[in-house]
Amino acid sequence: MAFVIRPYTPPDLPHLYRVCLLTGDSGADASGLYRDPDLLGHFYAAPYAVHEPDLTFVLTDEEGVCGYVLGCRDSMEFAAWMEAVWLPPLRRRYPLPPVGDASKDAAMIRLIHKGYTPSSLTPEYPAHLHIDLLPRAQGLGQGRRLMEVFLNRLRELGVPGVHLGVGQRNVGAVAFYERMGFVRLQTFPWGYEYGLKL
Ligand SMILES: CC(C)(COP(=O)(O)OP(=O)(O)OC[C@H]1O[C@@H](n2cnc3c(N)ncnc32)[C@H](O)[C@@H]1OP(=O)(O)O)[C@@H](O)C(=O)NCCC(=O)NCCS
Predict the structure, then answer these.
(1) pLDDT of 93 above 90
(2) What is the 89 CA–ligand 1 centroid distance (Å)?
(3) Of ligand 1's atoms, which has the minimum distance to the CA of residue 166?
(4) Which end of the chain is more exposed for a tag (fewer CB within 10 A), N or C?
(5) What residue owns the CA closest to ligand 1's atom 34?
(6) Confidence (pLDDT) at 162
């Protein structure tokens, strides 16, 4: 299997949505959980690629895009851009659901309305990232390669640190981030936040 890492280009965008959904249930396929297949990608993948295309890298093989790493260099600036540019059209497209709607779609739409809240780690670790590989690309060292490309780009940009969040059910990702040198800094009911000084 010939894996290639290359910079993001706009035709990759639907593939980012697809990979995000297929890994969106604590690393497993979330496509059975959502009626609207784009809701996860609207929040966790597409805005990064659109806002910071030079910090977005895709992993490809013979079958096409099978993974990505993406993020932002400055989470405060990213939060402001989300509020000013990215989220308003989505809020118009997806009105707030009724209070009694306990579906996963409703939860994501509420998050779109709430907006992106920067972590308290942001002053020391301004960047944050998301990394997702389809099952066929996992466990082969490709996540490490993608992460190294992303971290080297942040170093080129002079960013002093990067953080990320991971659900506590996602034990594989927790093990991966710790192997990559990330340090667990905060624990929440939903999971953990990790940081890495660059
Ligand atoms: C988590 C993920 C990015 C890791 O990428 P990967 O390509 O599978 O990992 P690699 O093969 O590059 O492994 C790198 C290191 O992490 C370790 N590691 C990776 N996955 C692991 C797992 N499930 N359990 C234990 N260790 C793991 C490897 O042993 C390896 O250590 P080594 O280099 O010292 O030998 C990838 O599996 C993935 O995308 N999973 C689904 C989506 C997801 O959960 N994303 C994170 C959301 S927060």
Answers:
(1) yes
(2) 35
(3) 48
(4) N
(5) 179
(6) 98
